[in-house]
Amino acid sequence: MPNETWQPPPVLLTVDLVILTLRSSTLHVLVIERGIAPYKGHWALPGGFISDAGEDIVDAARRELREEADLDATSLHLEQLGTYGRPDRDPRGRIVSVAHLAIAPGLPEPEAGTDASAASWCPVEEFTSGRRSLAFDHHQILDDGLERARTKIEHTSLATAFCDETFTITDLQRVYEAVWGFELDPRNFYRKVQAVPGFLTPVGSDRRTTRGRPARLFQAGPEHLLRPPMMRPLPPDQNPPTQSETK
Amino acid sequence: MPNETWQPPPVLLTVDLVILTLRSSTLHVLVIERGIAPYKGHWALPGGFISDAGEDIVDAARRELREEADLDATSLHLEQLGTYGRPDRDPRGRIVSVAHLAIAPGLPEPEAGTDASAASWCPVEEFTSGRRSLAFDHHQILDDGLERARTKIEHTSLATAFCDETFTITDLQRVYEAVWGFELDPRNFYRKVQAVPGFLTPVGSDRRTTRGRPARLFQAGPEHLLRPPMMRPLPPDQNPPTQSETK
DNA sequence: CTAGCTTCTTGTCAGTTCAACAAAAAGCAG
DNA sequence: CTGCTTTTTGTTGAACTGACAAGAAGCTAG
């Protein structure tokens, strides 16, 4: 019970970033090699302290995005993921981190930031498989970010955030396949995405070609919520009882 | 750029709670009348400061749930909603709040807690309609909590958290209707929920009755993710173009 | 104790969607 | 032109959806 003299204990606030992108059809996350203690020399998610008492949290996330990844937050998707405050998560003391999820299209190779000795894109599979590990509770944060991405591309247009301004339907399919981790039928995918009102806007008869038949170009449509959603099939180990079988 | 002497600014951390329940088929939220400044005498969401530097955030939420609402957190749904840290959100200074969403079944009339002069269930419609207002940015938090509930009962079993241990399918339908704000066909609803594998487990031939034919009793099943999801129909103002019309 | 009322449960049926596969279209390389 | 790749359009049977009818199982009133 708080008495008259009790004062709430102050904590230090950081932002951490799960920045995802697609490189050669594989899902990558941006990680840094820590240049300072604790966990010096280990891999970690980019992030840092709130810079001053007047800085909004999302502004801090945007700033770190710029400082540590040289990415412009105005052009890419950024959302709050969750707040991680286990008392023992940081050996320096009570440090609470507001994690964010960022989705970036394409490519630019990142540069080392202020307190990171190296920053690089790494396939997420390196971490989910356990081959590489992350400092602090960043493994948990990454898992939560991936799960958020997996479920959110089901019923929102988030997948378009992985693509450039204009893209083909096959480009979009690569996003779904990389995030979900299995392949989809191109013919059914092709019609399904176009059947969702407001998901995609065709950009005038423009096309682009590499090897096969040229593909139509689209851009993200006005609708953020996908109805009907792009439901991923259940894992193949489950035998889904159909409504008729159940009766 | 942080120099050698720079120290991250400490902030004060609070937890706030959006506690939802159903009373006579209407969605209610628990609000308190603030007993202390700021906003003394205004309505607000229950919440409070982290009690000490070693308290985990979710533990703080559980504690506030007990202190301010006399609810046992072990038996009800509690999840993190989001973190609100606009620099000007609290006139006392830089106070960051980790909001949580709690779902409670039924009934007990709450009692006034430590720094709340009154606590009571209030229909959410009072706030969403603008008839009543909330202190701080709690209106935003409530809106976010409601939206989270609306979308989450679509593809998770969250709706069962509004019900008692055992419940009828009509009970469950009332939850969906209250949260979504419109009525559903009982006959289609009846079969739809039972067609989702793992959503409901029938409890042995038990029944219960008030006026009509006795209804079967169920309890929450083992599955947390609903496949297929309980999709709400789109708002009636939209004319959904069918796939065949689109072609 | 039967008629009527309420609520729960099962049936039915047409329109729509979905997944799997075939096939056509459109470019390029040789 | 022939073959190869990739994109786009068709087809088809099974499954799901939403709207509604009808039966089942209690209670209450007369």
Describe the structure.
- Two copies of one chain form a homodimer.
- The first copy, chain A, folds into two domains: 12-137, Nucleoside Triphosphate Pyrophosphohydrolase, CATH 3.90.79; 155-235, Orthogonal Bundle (Arc Repressor Mutant, subunit A), CATH 1.10.10.
- Helix content of chain A is 25%, strand content 28%.
- Mean pLDDT of chain A is 90; it is low at 238-247.
- Chain A has helices spanning 57-69, 124-128, 138-155, 169-180, 186-195, 243-246; strands at 10-23, 26-34, 43-44, 47-49, 77-84, 95-103, 116-123, 200-208, 215-220.
- Chain A has six helices and nine strands.
- Chain A has 247 residues and is of the alpha+beta class.
- At the A-B interface, strand 1, strand 5 and helix 5 of A face strand 1, strand 5 and helix 5 of B.
- Strand 1 of chain A pairs antiparallel with strand 1 of chain B, so a sheet runs across the interface.
- The structure holds a DNA duplex (30 and 30 nucleotides).
Q: Gyration radius of chain A, to the nearest Å?
A: 21 Å
Beta fraction of chain A: 25-35%
Helix content of chain A: 25-40%
Gross CATH architecture of the largest domain in chain A: Alpha-Beta Complex
The CATH class assignment of the largest domain in chain A is Alpha Beta
Annotated CATH topology of the largest domain in chain A: Nucleoside Triphosphate Pyrophosphohydrolase
Q: Give the termini separation of chain A.
A: 56 Å
Unreliable runs of chain A, pLDDT <50, ≥5 residues? 238-247
Tally of separate helices of chain A: 6
- The CATH homologous superfamily name of the largest domain in chain A equals Nucleoside Triphosphate Pyrophosphohydrolase
Average pLDDT for all residues of chain A = 90
Instruction: Specify which chain pair forms the largest interface.
Output: A-B, 45 and 45 residues
Tally of domains of chain A: 2
Q: Give the oligomer, counting copies of the same chain as homo and different chains as hetero.
A: homodimer
The profile of the biggest β sheet of chain A is: 7 strands, mixed
Shape of chain A: elongated
Helix/strand-derived class of chain A? alpha+beta
